Here is the input.
Amino acid sequence: MTGTSATATARHWRTLLVLLLVVVSYLALTPTPPKELTLGWDKANHMAAFAALTIAAYGGIRVSLGRLLLLAASLLAFGGLIEVLQRFVPGRSCEWEDLFADAIGIAFGMAIGACVFRMARRMFRGDR
Here is the structure.
């Protein structure tokens, strides 16, 4: 992948990340989120949301250990902020278990991102 196309691809991933942040924030902070947008178990919703956020963020950064640690910490802090804010939303609650589910989603997202983006780089370079 050329430098220009890699930059454009990263920009697309960052745009997706911003959109996902808005959607996750809305769903987490609205008193009654749409029932059609649930996986049936609150913790699965958290894991899926944070895995998606992580994959989008992973695609938008140049990968290094420091950046990955910062990414994970930032997303976990975002999850913590959501939990604190939910204390003030009628019908919502602040739960440590939700933050733990967020952390599991971040770990899954990191693993999926590492595999998918490594395979994509190999495909674009022509490696086998």
Observations:
- The first helix runs from residue 3 to 29.
- The chain has four helices and no strands.
